[in-house]
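Researcher: Here's a chain I'd like modeled. Treat it as a single chain, no partners, no ligands.
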Amino acid sequence: MKKKITIVGAGISGLSAARLLSPTADVELLDKADKAGGLIKCDYVAGNLFHKVGGHVFNSKNKEVFNWFWSPFDIEKEFLKTTRKAKILYNGRLIGYPLENHLFEFGKDIVTKVVSELIDIQKQNAVRPQEYDNFEDFLRSNFGETLYHLYFKPYNQKIWNTDLSKVALEWLEGKLPMPNIREIFINNIIKEEESEMVHATFYYPKSGGSQFIANRLSEGLHIQTGFSVNLIEKQNGSYLINKTIRADTIVYTADVRELANILKTDDKDLQAALQDVTTLKSNGTSNLFCECDDNDDLSWLYIPEDFTKAHRIIYTGNFSPANNLGTNRKTCVVEFSGKVDPEIMKEEIKLLPGNLSPLSYNYEPNSYVIQEKDTRQKITRLKELLQNYDFYLVGRFAEWEYYNMDKAIEASQKLSRKLTA
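Model: Modeled as a single isolated chain. Structure tokens:
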């Protein structure tokens, strides 16, 4: 008989793990939501597609991830390939992104300060990015005080809503290109667009957005939606979930902080490790779905200044024409950190460009995980102890890693190899 594996959570991590494990195991997914998708879920609002938690697209520099992703899709018929076009709203103007490659768009005083600081940094002994004590030190030491206070500090504090000196650097790995002063100067002279970031170009479904991806990955899988897991206990060598579902192995992709109240164990070390992760920090996001004016095919607009609580606009209406079938305008998602009242958001968007008109809103209690200095140590210890009991963690909220879609798939592939070895 095949091993019975139950996966808790049917977001991109759970769906990927299920498809990878299904050929050799009896796999069932459980999700508390009414449909699969997790953070990549979308709904239609009056014919327009609402990405309820940001805007999710796909690309990957990992060939294994890239090739596996396309196995259930027709890349030519079902997807569009788009070049990322991001800007920063600063002092009422749209500045190119990343900011350090568009210094030529600022005035002489700012450019002079930034260049002088970058030259001083270049003269100093080089320190590898991973050797900095925290995110704040990394930013100040690699970009200088002017750029730090102009953009990096205000924007990142808006998103993370936490002290940047407490944030560990590991979360940057594979997500942001490391700063290179030589390339900063070259890009400002020849005015070359950023091409090293994973999503400098990206793939996006012609219809249905990231929900189309979740729906296709769900095909052929055994998924119970509307199922809240509130008790996992070991009985007679196997797991019993909510006293009704039996499993030999658990793959957990949900919020790891909740496990201390869900997983029953007599192992004192495991109990302590479960308690250790209950204090991990995260931010939720409030998203206001809007109609907007045409905007020169922008993808993302970042907003560091404090004149508004919003920190970015995601122009999902530019990702595919099919996202705007209920309007003769374009659509976008305005994102705020934390829980923001819809009426406040409606007032805030009056301060933003594009003649924004609200259509719908969504609040997601957890979307951004915050890694502090000891976070990975706590998660690693917990994973080691759980594996002794055939219980595995994978995904953004289980591993407390800021995974994009491709990194979530990569993590599921690694776990699949371990379980099928």
